[in-house]
């Protein structure tokens, strides 16, 4: 299960529920408005308690529809803004990774191994994915740590986390 996708699906579900409520309230409002108009044609007076109550219900439903439409629009806008932010963060992370790898002069094989380290794979898993021996992956990882001046996996990963937390001045200076 991908945990990163769960909140997005929840937000989409919420937007769908809101749209359904808007539709239901809209249909109910049309019914009450139609009923009020028919009753008013027959009676011609708004002093009838039943007609007054239906009029109030119709106004409340129309108000609810308008409110929910505004709320749904805001929700959709926030979802769009969050997706844009995620896309930007993804792009920045790719740029940060590429910049570091270039700076450290990693070979293509080392880049592949380094990316898998960043994704959280251990050496044995990396070896299986790349169809190489575990010893080869260990040697490549050792080379990556030496080129990045890090003491191991945790410190290597922390280089990227620190860069993201710091707001990545490297990209800001390059832009």
UniProtKB/TrEMBL annotation:
Residues annotated as transmembrane: 53-72
Task: Output the Gene Ontology terms for molecular function.
Answer: DNA binding
Domain named HTH luxR-type: residues: 103-160
**What Gene Ontology terms for biological process does this UniProt record contain?**
regulation of DNA-templated transcription
The answer, when asked if Zinc is one of the entry's keywords, is no
Sorted alphabetically, which keywords does the UniProt record give? Membrane, Transmembrane, Transmembrane helix
Q: Specify the domain of life of the species encoding this protein.
A: Bacteria
Q: What residue ranges carry the coiled-coil annotation?
A: none
Name of the featured protein: HTH luxR-type domain-containing protein
